[in-house]
Design a protein that fits this description.
The protein is of the alpha+beta class and 107 residues long. The protein has 3 helices and 5 strands, in the order αβββαββα. It starts with a helix and ends with a helix.
Length: 107
């Protein structure tokens, strides 16, 4: 099941040509010294947004903050699985997240 869900995450990343997936055991994307998407051991996708955008998407998508290894990942929104069917739209959110971390001071 995890490997099947990982294929969805990989397909999502493949739609975005400005960055690539990293990590073997904990897949993620990073830019400018910041991670901005994660795929956890529960097979869930989290995408990082600014605080204002997080609040908006948590409400719009009826979701929560993302958890990984039993820790709340502040800054990351859990992407509901029903949204995984539309990878083009999800890729837009991932690009938005990339733009957000690129606007932060480099680490």
């Amino acid at each position: 099941m995890w490997k099947e869900k990982l294929k969805v995450y990989d397909a999502l990343i493949a739609k975005c040509d400005r960055f690539e997936r990293k990590g073997k055991t904990m897949p993620f994307t990073a830019a400018n010294g910041y991670m901005f998407s994660l795929f956890n051991k529960a097979g869930e996708i989290g995408i990082r947004f600014s605080k204002e955008v997080q609040k908006k998407y948590i409400e719009e998508w009826d979701t929560t903050l993302y958890k990984s290894y039993n820790s709340i990942m502040h800054g990351y929104v859990l992407i509901p699985e029903h949204m995984w069917d539309d990878l083009d739209t999800l890729a837009g959110y991932l690009d938005e997240s990339y733009d957000y971390v690129m606007s932060l001071p480099p680490k």
